[in-house]
Amino acid sequence: MKKIIALLSLIMVVSLNPAAAQTSTEFNNQGLAKFKAKDYNGALQDFNKAVAIDKNNEKALHNRGLVKYSLKDYEGAISDHTMAIKLNPSYSNAYNDRGFVYYRMGNKKNALLDYDKAIQFNEAYFRAYKNRAMLQYAEKNYDAAIKDYAKCIELEPKEADGYV
């Protein structure tokens, strides 16, 4: 009986010990590893836990948006990227990735606005230039597309996408 009481006491101490609990950042990092392994449902659970612990974790919100996009929850992805941007109005990755979701949904106007914002906050953001160039090309704005592709080549000369 003493062993059972001692074991239960130990379990209670460990469960109540804040050092034993995972932080929002730890759940975010766990989620990223699962996302990279394409375990989107597992990643979503970890990002949900990260946000539940810290509603101001803009990285976890952004990453959860990436997972929701991968799970084809486009509205959820836009919502999470938007919340990340509200927390950090200069979060260029969130603008770029929200723009990508808008583009996939056919909302090219909002996509272009977001790519512009991503570039405004990070003038060396290769992927935002590439995404904006693809949108400009699709809209037959060839001069603008060429300008963005030229910037891609300037930023990443070995990246073949810039030469499209």
Give a structural overview.
- The model is unreliable at 6-20 (pLDDT under 50).
- 75% of the residues lie in helices and 0% in strands.
- The chain is built from 9 helices and no strands.
- With 164 residues, the protein is mainly α.
- The protein has helices spanning 2-16, 24-36, 40-53, 58-70, 74-87, 92-104, 108-121, 126-138, 142-155.
- It is elongated and about 55 Å long.
- Output the helix-strand order: HHHHHHHHH
Query: How many extended strands?
Result: 0
Count of helix runs: 9
Distance between the termini: 74 Å
**Secondary-structure-derived class:** mainly alpha
Given as residue ranges, the uncertain stretches (5+ residues, pLDDT < 50) are: 6-20
Q: Main beta sheet, described? A: none
Mean pLDDT: 90
Helical proportion, percent range? over 70%
Beta-strand fraction estimate:
under 5%
- Please state the CA-atom Rg, rounded to the nearest Å: 21 Å
Describe the secondary-structure layout.
Layout: H1 2-16, H2 24-36, H3 40-53, H4 58-70, H5 74-87, H6 92-104, H7 108-121, H8 126-138, H9 142-155
Helix pairs in contact: 2-3, 2-4, 3-4, 4-5, 4-6, 5-6, 6-7, 6-8, 7-8, 8-9
In a few lines, what is going on in this structure?
With 164 residues, the protein is an all-alpha fold.
